[in-house]
């Protein structure tokens, strides 16, 4: 079947695919930044001792994890205008991606922090280090190290999830591929072109993860 | 004992973990320069007792004054912890820092020493505990005994007035126990005030001024080592000594 691919048509649509690829790239980058900001914030709130600050962070993570991204996306797309907030589709898409991945990022960062043995924190306390110093000098450097691989994993998910934005008519890689399907009735060509774009992004992230862990392994270990 | 000569003073301290009465009316005074060994069966509250001294455990009743600071004043806790070193059974070194960085972290960030001063102090201490050649090693590149000596140096680098030890040798292989005990004996002989939870009775005989026996959250018996080992008053102490000295 792949042997029968109409590569001429695929090449003809290369400019559209390329535009879609760039669009997916930067939607993902924006979503990633938003997700990290939200993730760090939600995690910081979730682990601090005040209950009334913890509750909203926990509720946010729960609601996002319990519902599908598609529902979240439509909720913003149809819900925000009813509140009188009219935003471009692209921005709604970025907000949805950020909110969605942010909840998973929060969980990833939180488990990184919880993976640091309590004894090290107590050792820090016992030498007079304050809460922020213990976080900055002892907990976070190790927790973030433990977090990089799962964060890259979640980013790979985010890149693929950005394809849902095609449903609110944001032009990105998936939608660009659909053009080939619709204009030329060649859905397979469209899908293959799209898949190649995602593969490139996937391998870029995967090799970033590999390079990072090779460089940051503790000396003499793993 | 005059007020100035007291370093640690428990008066009627009680602590509960839920329904469990884990410290039962503890009154105990440790003088400056005194070395007190605490022993007792597992679960008797030894760790809880010394963890109260630097505020790692809060308690519900009674008074505890350490180096003139009342522990009920949680705001004074950080300043107090600068003067009270704590050595854990499981070392608790920072795995992402070298031996020297482990030792200099708090002096730099808490005492405000500059790096050069802190490193000079840290090197001298690591030399002193016999690790002059291991300063650049990470914890996982050190044996248990070496890690525990780094942990001791880490506490000493803050130049504390009191050192607390919670079973510092019980996670170690037998051949490494002495290298750690030797460091502690040296410290005791230099006049450091020490509270040491341990079942190393050789150590107690050598340097302890008093040995305390705890059972079920209470101090059952306190005596100088000679008396403690040869003529314990209580049946429970005799029982316990029988168990730990004959195995
Ligand atoms: N955080 C906690 N919550 C509830 N119970 C606790 C907690 N920490 C300790 N305990 C209980 O308090 C009692 C005293 O514990 P502690 O660790 O002080 O004993 P220990 O004398 O140091 O024992 P070991 O020789 O085994 O170290 C034990 O019964 C223990 O199970
Ligand atoms: Mg204990």
UniProtKB/TrEMBL annotation, chain A:
Major localisation: membrane
Membrane-related topology note: Multi-pass membrane protein
GO MF terms, alphabetically ordered: transmembrane transporter activity
A biological process term (GO) from this entry: amino acid transport
Protein location: Cell inner membrane; Cell membrane
Gene3D superfamilies linked: MetI-like
UniProt keyword annotations, A-Z: Amino-acid transport, Cell membrane, Membrane, Transmembrane, Transmembrane helix, Transport
Transmembrane segment boundaries: 20-47
Assigned GO CC terms: ATP-binding cassette (ABC) transporter complex
A Pfam family hit: BPD_transp_1
InterPro entries in the cross-refs: AA_ABC_transptr_permease_3TM, ArtM/GltK/GlnP/TcyL/YhdX-like, MetI-like, MetI-like_sf
Boundaries of every ABC transmembrane type-1 domain copy: 21-209
Keyword Aminoacyl-tRNA synthetase: no
Keyword Lipid biosynthesis: no
Entry function: Part of the binding-protein-dependent transport system for glutamine; probably responsible for the translocation of the substrate across the membrane.
Recorded family membership: Belongs to the binding-protein-dependent transport system permease family. HisMQ subfamily.
Name by which UniProt lists this protein: Amino acid ABC transporter membrane protein 1, PAAT family
Source organism: Paracoccus chinensis
Automatic annotation (TrEMBL), chain B:
Topology relative to the membrane: Peripheral membrane protein
Domain of life: Bacteria
Subcellular location: Cell membrane
Matching SMART domains: AAA (SM00382)
The UniProt record lists the keyword Lipid biosynthesis: no
Gene3D superfamilies: P-loop containing nucleotide triphosphate hydrolases (3.40.50.300)
Keywords noted in UniProt: Amino-acid transport, ATP-binding, Cell membrane, Membrane, Nucleotide-binding, Transport
GO molecular function: ABC-type amino acid transporter activity; ATP binding; ATP hydrolysis activity
GO cellular component: plasma membrane
Domain ABC transporter: start-end pairs: 8-241
SUPFAM superfamilies attached to this UniProt entry: P-loop containing nucleoside triphosphate hydrolases
Database matches in InterPro entries: AAA+_ATPase, ABC_ATPase_HisP-typ, ABC_transporter-like_ATP-bd, ABC_transporter-like_CS, MetN_ABC_transporter-like, P-loop_NTPase
Keyword Secreted annotated: no
Stated family: Belongs to the ABC transporter superfamily.
Protein name, per record: Amino acid ABC transporter ATP-binding protein, PAAT family
Organism the protein comes from: Paracoccus chinensis
């Amino acid at each position: 079947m792949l042997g029968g691919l109409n590569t001429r048509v695929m090449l003809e649509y290369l400019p559209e695919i390329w535009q879609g690829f760039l669009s997916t790239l930067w939607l993902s980058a924006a979503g990633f930044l938003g997700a990290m900001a939200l993730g760090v914030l939600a995690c910081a709130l979730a682990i601090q001792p005040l209950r009334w600050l913890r509750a909203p962070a926990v509720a946010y993570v729960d609601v996002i994890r319990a519902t599908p991204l598609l529902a979240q996306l439509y909720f913003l797309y149809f819900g925000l205008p009813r509140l009188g907030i009219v935003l471009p589709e692209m921005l709604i898409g970025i907000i949805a991606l950020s909110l969605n991945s942010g909840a998973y990022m929060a969980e990833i960062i939180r488990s990184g922090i919880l993976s640091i043995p309590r004894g090290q924190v107590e050792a820090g306390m016992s030498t007079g280090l304050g809460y922020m110093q213990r976080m900055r000098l002892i907990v976070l450097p190790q927790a973030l190290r433990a977090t990089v691989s799962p964060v890259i994993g979640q980013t790979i998910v985010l890149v693929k999830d950005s394809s849902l934005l095609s449903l609110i008519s944001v032009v990105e890689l998936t939608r660009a591929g659909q053009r080939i399907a619709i204009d030329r009735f060649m859905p397979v060509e469209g899908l293959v072109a799209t898949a190649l774009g995602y593969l490139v992004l996937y391998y870029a992230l995967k090799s970033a993860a590999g390079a990072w862990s090779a460089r940051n392994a503790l000396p003499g270990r793993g | 004992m005059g007020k100035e000569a007291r370093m640690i003073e428990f008066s009627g301290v009680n602590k509960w973990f839920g329904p469990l009465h884990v410290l039962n009316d503890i009154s105990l005074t440790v003088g400056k320069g005194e070395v007190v060994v605490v022993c007792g069966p597992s679960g008797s509250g030894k760790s809880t007792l010394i963890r109260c001294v630097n505020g790692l455990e809060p308690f519900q009743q009674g008074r505890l004054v350490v180096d003139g600071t009342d522990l009920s004043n949680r705001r004074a806790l950080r300043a107090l912890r600068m003067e009270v070193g704590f050595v854990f059974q499981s070392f608790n070194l920072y795995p992402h820092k070298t031996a020297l960085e482990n030792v200099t972290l708090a002096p730099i960030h808490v005492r405000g020493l500059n790096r050069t001063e802190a490193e000079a102090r840290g090197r001298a201490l690591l030399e002193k505990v016999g690790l002059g050649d291991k300063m650049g090693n990470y914890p996982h590149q050190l044996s248990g005994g070496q890690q525990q000596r780094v942990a001791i140096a880490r506490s000493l680098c803050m130049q504390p007035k009191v050192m607390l030890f919670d079973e510092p040798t019980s996670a170690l292989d037998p051949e490494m126990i002495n290298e750690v005990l030797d460091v502690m004996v040296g410290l005791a002989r230099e006049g450091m005030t020490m509270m040491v939870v341990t079942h190393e009775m050789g150590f107690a005989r050598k340097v302890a001024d008093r040995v305390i026996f705890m059972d079920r959250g209470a101090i059952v018996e306190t005596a100088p080592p000679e008396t403690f080992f040869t003529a314990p008053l209580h049946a429970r102490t005799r029982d316990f000594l029988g168990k730990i000295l004959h195995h």
